[in-house]
Amino acid sequence: MSTADALAPIVPVVPGSAPHVLIIRAPYYRDIVDGMTTAAGALLAEANATVETIDVAGAYELPQALRIALRGKQAFDGFVVLGCVVRGETDHYDYICSTAMNGLMNVAVQYGICLGTALLTVDTIAQAEARSAETGSNKGAEAAAACLRQIALARLLGAA
Predict the structure, then answer these.
(1) Does pTM surpass 0.85?
(2) For 90-130, what is each residue's pLDDT tens digit?
(3) CATH number at residue 147
(4) Which residues are annotated as a binding site for (2S)-2-hydroxy-3-oxobutyl phosphate?
(5) Which GO terms describe its molecular function (predicted)?
(6) Cα–Cα distance for residue pair 85/93, rounded to 1 Å
């Protein structure tokens, strides 16, 4: 299935109190990330979640910000991470994508958090636009749905 024909995510039912979610964004490609943020926010609002949003410098800082949030005094039920990396002329792209994605997964697994990730790793801006547009499949909405599903799972299993 391609992004073009993917179905819009369904808002998961999350038992218990309204989930509190932190969206961590790397808005280097502002229009792309804003599109994903809007879609994620709309889906989270449908689930009656409360949302806070912070921005970081770039994709490389996303795992660091996630870990810093976990060290903070404020508790969140889940996290949604949004960003975009577009392939350039150097191998910098490969390092950033790999390091950022591995860093996010390492934090999520080590600390058992509920994480939805939409770090677009694309060859062109057009590919990013297709994945962040208001209509069609939006990876921000998909990441928010994934986060909510993880929160529901954690609550079901008594891990939240």
Answers:
(1) yes
(2) 888 999 999 999 999 999 999 999 999 999 999 999 999 99
(3) 3.40.50.960
(4) 89-90, 131
(5) 6,7-dimethyl-8-ribityllumazine synthase activity
(6) 7
